[in-house]
Amino acid sequence: MARRPLVAGNWKMNGSRDSNASLMHDVVFEARNFPDVDILVCPPAVYIESVGRMLEGSAIQLGAQTLSEQGKPGAFTGEIHGGMLRDVGCTHVIVGHSERRALYGETSNIVAAKFRTAQLCGLVPVLCVGETLEQREANQTEAVLMEQLNAVVSLCGIAAFKTAIIAYEPVWAIGTGRTATPQQAQDAHEFLRAQLAASDAKIASSVRILYGGSVKADNAETLFKCADVDGGLIGGASLKSAEFMAICAAAQMREK
Ligand code: PGA
User: Mind telling me the catalytic residues?
Assistant: First the structure.
């Protein structure tokens, strides 16, 4: 099944009103050259609304980097409800990024609850999964991926993956300049798809699985050529328009 490639920019805790405006000016202009690629940008929450205005008239989609797991708004100081993200124009939200898991104590159960809340609010969750270096070296990669994926499948059901995106992000490749080889990425993506296929082959073949972890202009093409790699979740390189656009060009060129 042909899956439309997606290139998503995760800005993390970066940006300013000025730098966002200049980045979006370039990206909106150039994105017209990539009609076969879905492009998503995920700015810090305080900038979502203003970035949304910069995207008006373009096909670029808007996402958030996390959301509260709480189903209803209320007394949760500092948290942001999925309905608010929808209200300011988000269509997508990243859940379970390894930085959230490692630095902010998000367990697989919390991530699953966030995934569910996102969908209940009409947002498409981009579920991040991935192993640490220690786990890979101890041959635990598949067990870790299974645990992270199954927490969501158990809570939300396999049908939830009809409207979700997965991002395989090996922790050791994030922000390190050390990218997974195309074979390592393909193996993990194939494994994740097979896990879903055990419950529903049709959903498994249609879900998009992005690779994330030091994707750059010069390695995107070989990664995107892998049969089960449907695009990328891009951190550092999404902050530079030329790099980000070159990655979109690699997605546009891919033939499957
Ligand atoms: P990176 O980050 O591209 O800077 O490695 C990827 C991510 O964390 O989503």
Answer: 97, 169
